[in-house]
Amino acid sequence: MAGSTFNKIFMAILTATLVALLAGFISKKLLHPHIPEERAYKVEVPETQAADAGAGAAAAPAAPEPVAPLLAAADATKGQGVAKACAACHSFEKGGANKVGPNLWNIVNAPHAHAEGFGYSDAMKALHEKPWDYEALNVFLANPKAAIPGTKMNYAGIKKADDRANLIAYLRSLSDSPAPLP
Ligand code: HEC
Q1: Which residues line ligand 1 (CB under 6 A)?
Q2: Could you report the per-residue pLDDT of 124-159, keeping only the tens digit for each?
């Protein structure tokens, strides 16, 4: 092999190696940027909590008052009154149409995202394996967006436990065979 040819090959290999090293160095810089100190997520505090903390309640409760102990004495007729707030978006009768929200006949113990043909949010669909038991309804209806982040239900929630109990008693009555009380 003539000397100059060898030199050319040698230089080519050397150049290729340098380019490869340089590329590696640059991509490392690009792919491993300095990781920011600040956390990527935020904990949201609902604005209503402060106003909600009534006399004596120093800190806002993390979870709404459980509804099970209230259900025995709850009044479904009063709950029907509370449900007027839902009627803009929901129908309640058997076979009723889905509106802005799904029909709510037989909702107690039905799976999340129970209504066929309704365009649920991904957040709601992801919970399809879970039944709407009394406590799930209680937590959701107290503050829908906090209970299921990403829900499409644009409703602030029902703050008073008694109202929720009456409403859930009404929802329970919307069935051919209402679920047993807890
Ligand atoms: C502004 C319209 C609107 C109002 C008012 C509203 N909802 Fe909804 N609701 C929706 C929408 C939309 C969904 C579907 C949520 C999703 O896919 O994330 C929904 C979902 C639900 C679900 C879950 C149904 C399922 O199949 O999983 C329940 C239960 C429910 N609403 C109850 C109520 C009750 C009770 C009220 C009244 C206190 C109420 N909603 C008020 C729009 C509304």
Answers
A1: 85-86, 88-90, 100-102, 104, 107, 112-115, 120-121, 123-124, 132, 137, 141, 151-155, 158, 167
A2: 999 999 999 999 999 999 999 999 999 999 999 999
